[in-house]
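User: If only I could read backbone structure tokens as easily as an amino acid sequence. Underneath my words sits a plain record pairing an amino acid chain with its backbone structure tokens. This is the protein in question:
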Amino acid sequence: MNDKGIVVTGGASGLGLATCKLLASRGARVAIIDADQNKLEAALKEIRIATAFPPIGVAGDIALRNEAFALIDRIFKDLGRIDGVVNCAGVYPRRPILEISDEDWDYDWRVNVRGTYNIMAAAVSVMRRQQLDQSGVRGRVVNISSVDAFKAHPKNAHYAATKAAVVSLTRSFALEFAPEQILVNAVAPAAIATEKARAAGFIPELAAQTPLGRAAEPDDIAEWIAFMLSSANRYMTGETAIISGGYIFA
């Protein structure tokens, strides 16, 4: 990861923050996009303390196409090159399947699908103009899907549907830009024991249904993301790695 320019959306908390810290510790030049200015500033301070590679951060709404493109262009000018993008920004509402409102659908789709698409489109538009790196790749994208895209989950069916859409978008982008040596993949975690998830109270329930008997720690998933972004990944594209502690089979 040394000296690679990596953009992480939703990087001010949870899995996004864990990913930023891991990447920065391995020499990446990290840029965070987050909608929450206060959390963004706190995250930047935390990462600066822990690493010799100061991160940069920009606040904005990735669900707006023009804004997403402007954010990526601004980061590109600061970093000089965007080697990788991680789409961590997302929302996880739970609602009984017959009670999902129009507002629920709009909110989920806006962030989880449209935001992911906008950042992918903006990032690929930059990457395709770049020279190949030493591993023969122009850029790498990692999207965050969910095991719920593959396993029925009536308690959050609208969320699961958006994450299935992320899998589909990942495959479409991968096929379209493979000839230009841009790799697009996804990870599909089960429960991640982030601070927000613990506060919501559903981690014990999901951990009890997981053969390993626990939820994933953020670093467990961040390691997979780091591999997909690294020069060790030269041939994987269009794939979604399910990382569920066996939950997918339970």
